[in-house]
From TrEMBL:
Protein name, UniProt field: HTH-type transcriptional regulator CbbR
SUPFAM superfamilies from the UniProt entry: Periplasmic binding protein-like II, Winged helix' DNA-binding domain
Family: Belongs to the LysR transcriptional regulatory family.
ATP-binding in keyword set: no
Amino acid sequence: MTIQHATLRQLQIFTAAARSLSFARVAEQFGLTPGAVSFQIKQVEGHCGFPLFERVGRGVVLTEAGRDLLEHATLILQALDNADRRMQALKGVTGGNVTIGLVSTAKYIAPHMVSRFQAERPGVSIHLQDGNRREVNAMVAKGEVDLAIMGRPLDADELLAEPFARHPSIIICAPGHPLAQAPTLRLSDLADSDFIAREEGAGTRALTDAYFQGHGFSPRIVMTSSSNETIKQAVMAGIGIALLSRHTVNLELALGMLRELRVEGLPLMRSWYIAHRRSLPLLPVHAQLRSYLLERGQAIIDSLHAGHRALASGT
């Protein structure tokens, strides 16, 4: 027997397992038991004549044969997916599934936009997959997501992206911070402050580094985190101050749990982009969601922020 005898389902299971390196996660994804996933993997191994995974401690890693098969299986599945997209587009189907890649900051706004879109198109199922800027860029380039909500893409050749909303970033502090009540500040006034920053690879970290370097300022970074939520909690705990997207902290600002430092030259204004792979044809539902965000994304964000202010004022 050869790998040509493997079924499409087996290749899908193998590919998912090779990417996640977790049979339990794949079992949940496909509605199987971990034992059934292991059986399917053994079937594929029998077809190709090589072990595809090897156990290391409590986990598994891909063998050389597993890495090679993953490369070819990915191409096969993408080709079939592209063919299906084209057939569906010819039918003019408007329902279906959409997988959206999100940079971590986008999770504060994307669900609100998606919920409004689904209210008008209840037949559409949405799956959200988040990561940092580098990870989401790779998801789009590999065709692992249909669309992405992100900052400016890293690879303009592979991705087609259009801005749909403003994205301001500010420096926040705890209400009790010594500079919290200052009417205006220069960046040099923050020289003695401790900073909390995002991890390398995050869009917010790239923005922070570029901003400080452009002004000849060297922040004293005492903590890094891959989580905006962790950074917010650390700022509220008084560990330091941080430059973050206003969208991540708008509710806490409205409730008085955080304060915005009025630093000259801030907020830094970027844009939110809706992106997809240039070579991947968009199904009608994907094109509809893209158009929806381009037309209404900014208005939805504005109404969300207005709701936060109303909540804080009790009106």
